[in-house]
Design a protein that fits this description.
The chain is mostly helical. The chain has helices at about 5-15, 45-55, 60-70, 80-90, 95-105, 110-130, 135-155, 160-185. The longest helix has 29 residues, at about 160-185. The protein is elongated and about 70 Å long.
């Protein structure tokens, strides 16, 4: 993926994934070489390295770093959350959803809400990608909206969930209208 496409993809994620859930600004300068091995790193350092690589568009290396961190701190819900974001960046929606589901039951309510929100975002992003198949896209949007509304039920001020629910509902309406037009054309 070239730099322009990578920036466009990250911008697309930024429009849906809340700022709190996105990989933080890289703490490791982009010019620093990628760690060949994460063996000497603490879990925290490996997550920082993964975040830096994810921000640079290298989701595969980020996943390697997160896997190392997970071995050191298997109880840390932030690690599968970060893995979910890396899977989203790779458009591996099923793996992203699996990672986010692992975090939804977390004792950290804010992180659990962000994971539930990101779970919805994975459906939303997939719906945007498959919008040429309106029936499947509508199903994905309904799943996204359901997750966004679960977040809003426990965190009514979650602005990203409210905005994304609105965007998903608008896209769903458009696709439903398109389906109705297609059905009318087939009947004629």
């Amino acid at each position: 993926m070239n730099r322009r496409a990578r920036c466009a993809h990250l911008l697309g994620l930024a429009m849906i994934v809340p700022a709190a859930a996105q990989a933080p600004t890289a703490e490791v300068p982009p010019s620093e070489p990628i760690a060949k091995s994460f063996d000497g790193l603490s879990a925290r350092a490996a997550v920082r390295e993964g975040n830096a690589r994810l921000f640079e568009g290298d989701a595969a290396t980020a996943l390697d770093a997160y896997a190392h961190a997970g071995k050191r701190r298997p109880d840390a819900p932030q690690i599968p959350f970060a893995q979910g974001l890396a899977h989203l960046a790779q458009k591996d929606y099923d793996a992203a959803r699996d990672a986010f589901r692992a975090v939804v039951a977390s004792d950290n309510e804010r992180l659990a809400n962000d994971a539930l929100y990101s779970l919805g975002a994975s459906y939303h992003l997939e719906a945007m990608e498959i919008s040429e198949n309106p029936e499947q896209a509508v199903e994905k949007l309904e799943s996204a909206m359901s997750r966004y509304r679960e977040v809003l039920a426990s965190a009514p001020n979650h602005a990203a969930a409210r905005e994304s629910d609105y965007k998903a509902a608008a896209m769903r309406r458009q696709l439903k209208q398109l389906l109705e037009q297609q059905q009318q054309q087939q009947q004629n």
